[in-house]
Amino acid sequence: TSPIAWLRTRFYYLLIRVYFDQEFSVEEFTRGAKQAFSVVSKLLSQRKLDLLDELVSAEVLQALKEKISLLPDSHRDALAADIDAIMYTTEGDVRIYYDDDGIKFVSILMRFWYLNGANLPDEVPGETKVFQIVFGDESTKEKRHLLTANYEFQREFTEGAKPDWTITRIEHPRLLE
Fold first, then answer.
1. pLDDT at site 134
2. pLDDT of residue 132
3. Phi, psi of 21 (to 5 degrees)
4. Are 78 and 46 a contacting pair, CB within 8 Å?
5. CB under 8 Å to 117, separation ≥6 — which residues?
6. Under CATH, what is the fold of the domain 3-171?
7. pLDDT tens profile 10-66
8. N or C: where does the chain have the smaller number of CB atoms within 10 Å of the terminal CB?
9. Residues with Cβ < 8 Å from 55, sequence gap 6 or more?
C-alpha cells in the first residue's frame, strides 16, 4: 500500500477508537477477520450457505447462492482457505458512515492472499502458481496456487446495536464472478 493510504487507514482506526470503540485493536480485528475469512470460505466451498446467516449480509448471501450453484468443482474447491494457508493480509479501505437517521457504521475491506492446492486449469487468469513441492520421488508433486480474496466487514456502532461484524462483500477474483 502507499504511505498515504497507510496513514489514512491509521487515522480512521484512531477515529474508531476515539469515537466508537475505545477497545478497538487493529491486531485483534485482523485476527478475527482471518478466522472469519477461513470459516466463510470453507463453508462456501462446501456449499453450506445456510450456515452463513449470522456472518454474511442477506444481500451478499442471496448473490452467493446464485453464483455458487454455477461454479465448477475446481473453482469451488479453490475458495477454501485454511487459516494456516493465509500468507498475507492487509486492509484495503476503511470507511465511517452516518445515515440520515443517525445510524453509524464502520466498514473495513480486508484483502487476503492464500495458498490453495485446488486442481485449477492452467488458463485461469488472475492467479499465480507459486511453486511445486516434491515429496519423495519426482512422480509425486503437489501444486499450490496463490489466490486472493476481498472481504468487507461492517459493524453498526449506534447505541443499542449488536456489537457484531457482518461481511457485506465477498470477492474471489476469477473464481467467484
1. 45
2. 47
3. -150, 100
4. no
5. 142, 143, 144, 145
6. Nuclear Transport Factor 2; Chain: A, (3.10.450)
7. 999 999 999 999 999 999 999 999 999 999 999 999 999 999 998 999 999 999 998
8. C
9. 36, 39, 40, 166, 167
What's the pTM? 0.88
Residue 127 pLDDT > 80: no
CB-based contacts of 47, cutoff 8 Å, min separation 6:
68, 76
Mention every residue, 6+ apart, whose C-beta is less than 8 A from residue 145.
78, 115, 116, 117, 118, 120, 127, 128, 129, 130
8 Å CB contact between 106 and 96: yes
Note the helical H segments in 46-162.
58-70, 73-79
Cell of 75: 473453482
For the chain, give the longest Cα–Cα distance: 65
Using DSSP, state whether 96 is helix, strand or coil: strand
Q: Measured at the alpha carbon of residue 108, what is the angle toward residues 98 and 10, in degrees to the nearest 5?
A: 95
Q: Any idea where the domains of the chain sit in the sequence?
A: 3-171
β-bridge partners, 169: 152
